[in-house]
């Protein structure tokens, strides 16, 4: 019997060893799964941070490009009243030819400088466009002048690339 007891003890030890190995394997698998889950979480956080950095860089580049593209906006807004005054001065009757020629040269140089910066006059003939024109008065439409067309321009409008600096002030047939 003593051999049977020894065999049983050996079997119990083997079973205990197998249980210990299974417990160790389960613990190792659990630790591995937990480590993999943490690694996935860190990778996800890294990818989000990387995407956010790319978005910040893209927005900064777009902002820098817009600042460069519209850098002369404030200067143009300050110069436009002077250009308006030159046009009014040229409309005065009784100017000598020399004075008129001098005023025209100044006006042309201002217009040329504005064009070089991307500033253009808004066309104010034809149909009224509420995005480009500001109606300050209306006139009744007739057979020659259909509704929603521009009758008269009080003040020229200007735009810088695609941005309106000042809408054209117009009289519209209604």
Automatic annotation (TrEMBL):
Protein's UniProt keywords contain DNA-binding: no
Listed Acidic residues bias regions: 16-25
Pfam families xref list: GrpE
Family of the protein in this entry: Belongs to the GrpE family.
This protein's encoding gene: grpE
Alphabetical list of InterPro entries matching this protein: GrpE, GrpE_CC, GrpE_head
Organism, scientific name: Streptococcus loxodontisalivarius
Protein name (database record): Protein GrpE
Range of residues in the leader sequence: none
Subunit structure: Homodimer.
Membrane-crossing segments per the record: none
Listed Gene3D superfamilies: 3.90.20.20, Head domain of nucleotide exchange factor GrpE
UniProt KW Repeat keyword: no
Domain of life: Bacteria
